[in-house]
Amino acid sequence: MRRFFLALFAAPALPALAQTTPPAAATPSADEAAVRAVLQQYQRAVQRLDTTGTTRLFVPTSVVVESGSREGTYAHYRDHHLGPELKEFSSFTFSDYQADVTVDGPYAFATESYTYTIGLKKGPKEAAAPAPIKRRGVATSVLRKNAAGQWQFVVTHSSARK
């Protein structure tokens, strides 16, 4: 009888023990790769100082938060913040870039860290261009896979410090 109860209670524990073995290094899924591609497309557009074509990367009702300010939808942010800023820059470069991406069904969660350097244009009354601005930045984003199978930003929040 004792053996029966030991076997009965030990049987459910065997699959749990088997699951404690660390999995082999996972290869990125197609969805994770697609999410990373969206992150890169947006990053490249900023580095080109050109937001052309970036609207398709965001859902129409997206929310953009930057350094403590709710900027509204991406379209509003593009027209009233990002676009005008990019016109004042001579360059924008990312370095030390790292991204963690988790895909969970039709949603993906991304955390990015990077250093960015902004070159400013020389003003008409300035003898030389201002010194470059260099900051450490982070961004967290939620993306959703749409009916066409494309990943788009739903919410993105970025901040930076010296």
Could you give a short description of this structure?
By secondary structure, the chain is α+β, with helices and mostly antiparallel strands. It is 32% helix and 41% strand. It has 3 helices and 6 strands, in the order ααββαββββ.
Features of the shown structure:
162 residues, Nuclear Transport Factor 2, Chain: A, six-stranded mixed sheet, 6 strands, globular, signal, DUF4440 domain-containing protein, NTF2-like_dom_sf, SnoaL-like
What is the overall number of helices?
Answer: 3
Oligomer: single chain
CATH topology: Nuclear Transport Factor 2, Chain: A
Reported for the largest beta sheet, the result is:
6 strands, mixed
Helix content: 25-40%
Q: Which shape, going by the Cα principal axes?
A: globular
Protein name: DUF4440 domain-containing protein
Organism: Hymenobacter gummosus
InterPro entries: NTF2-like_dom_sf (IPR032710), SnoaL-like (IPR037401)
Keywords: Signal
